[in-house]
Amino acid sequence: MATLTDSSPRFVVDALRGERQTRPPVDTTSAPGLRSVLEDGIFEVLGAEKPDSPLVIRSSSLRQLAQSTDISLSPHGRVRGILVNQVLRLLSVGTSVNSPFDDALQAWRLESGAGELLGYVDQLGSDERARLETDVTAHSITLIRSLGPVPSRWLPRSAVRATQQLCAGAVLLRDVIDLMVGTTANDVASVALFDVTTSPLGEGNERTMRYHALVETLRTSIVPLRTSTFSTATGEMWSLDVDTELLMRSAEEVLAAIANQWRKP
Amino acid sequence: MSTLIHRRLTRNELNALIDSAPTTPVSLSDDHRRSLSARFRAVPGTDHRRLDAWTVEQAGRAQRGFRWSPTTARRVLGSGALRRIASAPALSIGEAVSDEITDQLLRAASGYARGGSLGYWLANASVPELGLITAEALNWATQVTEIAEGLENDWRIAPSDAFYDVATARTTLRGRRDLVVASDEHRVIIRVRAGTPGKSAGPGLRSDLTIETLAHPGGLAPARFIGVWPEAGVVLSVDATMADLRRGARDLVRTAVAQQRIRALIAA
Lengths: 265, 268
What we know:
The complex is a heterodimer.
Chain A (H helix, E strand, L loop, with lengths): L11 H6 L12 H17 L8 E3 L1 H5 L11 H18 L7 H13 L3 H7 L3 H22 L9 E10 L4 E11 L10 E6 L5 H18 L5 E6 L5 E5 L2 H20 L2
Parallel strand pairs in A: 1-3, 4-5
Antiparallel strand pairs in A: 2-3, 3-4, 5-6
Helix pairs in contact in A: 2-8, 2-9, 4-5, 4-7, 8-9
Chain B lengths: L4 E4 L2 H9 L10 H12 L7 E4 H5 L12 H18 L5 H17 L8 H6 L3 H23 L5 E3 L4 E5 L4 E5 L3 E4 L4 E6 L8 H15 L8 E6 L4 E6 L2 H26 L1
Parallel strand pairs in B: 2-5, 7-8
Antiparallel strand pairs in B: 1-9, 3-6, 4-5, 6-7, 8-9
Helix pairs in contact in B: 4-5, 4-7, 5-7, 8-9
């Protein structure tokens, strides 16, 4: 179910969890069923064969089921995405971000040490670097203005990783949730998943939102309350309440991605 | 036969693992300690040896030199924050993490932090870097809290890791532990781990169990040692049977031997 609020909330954070009174009881029974659906579906795709190395599914595997070019996957787009995510991590713990590009770059360097994409940033010419800096700053300002303060009692955690093995390791579902708030140790559903993208929102982002909810359900055996995504390109936010229908749809999308990957030579 | 159990991480499964832990007490005597010491002494080596579950899981392979990073600092800071909350329950996790970092910075500013220590490293970090370190510590503390809040038995944050110096063998064993679930009947130790459990997770868990037992003043083993991998949503546990304790000790000695062989190869 998509949430349509009467009035536009001032901050993204205000829309994340909604009112406590309207939250459904925590669903702890759907996860085993979903796992069975996935494992049965994978068996139908793979049969008795087992891949030499696990088939790895990520949210990016679902974003582009059809063959097309996505400029967010260019090095510039990826670096911009990583840096805006670093800004989100800093904001989630109340760190003031004065110079988004430099602050995010420092945090990223500390986190990853060295890597191909950091090398890409280091070898940029002054014009290209200035372009990247302007781009990251523009996206970060949209995020800073829209996000709002994240209360620490909501237990915010950022860049939360999840890995789920299916069919004895034949398939691996990997995911990173940009920001998660709420707790699983509650009688009502309270976990909200939040994803930030630097691209305009599209069908692929909807699939990503559902995928986050699916993997989180499999990981914790508890269905989250809501899954949301925010575009720093448009300032738009989409939010979906998580229910069985949404999770089943995501399971079908995952199975389609597995079939797609398995067919590739 | 190994008592290794594999379960999905759910509140019910974790509580069931704690409730079904064996109640027969198992302990290691002074003879066991002397025997272990003799075995470690038999492994040649000039340097002081430090072993833990990770070195066992890596079969003694040489590791890159330790350096502080948000990932290596998160457990120290996160666990410190949780111990703070235990003594001051009004603190939120975010406040406790922030206090913990401030304490480390104060230690560095007052000259109590030596080079290479966590405080020293934090003191040289920029504001955004401190923000990222805080975020990682907060992630750690929150996931441990979520696990603890689902427990039906009384629990406490482990006051520290378990350390055991093997007498006259220049060897220190370190067992990591995060939560202690103690009842009148038994105590169960929970260790929270990052990533996904590999094939060597069982031997790692058994080493932690053995070190925990050796570090106990009376040599009393915990009834069960549980490893929780929240990222993978998986729980593994091992019981304190004499067979498992022996295998844990054997794995530690084998790791010391493997380490020594690797060092000898590098030296050659």
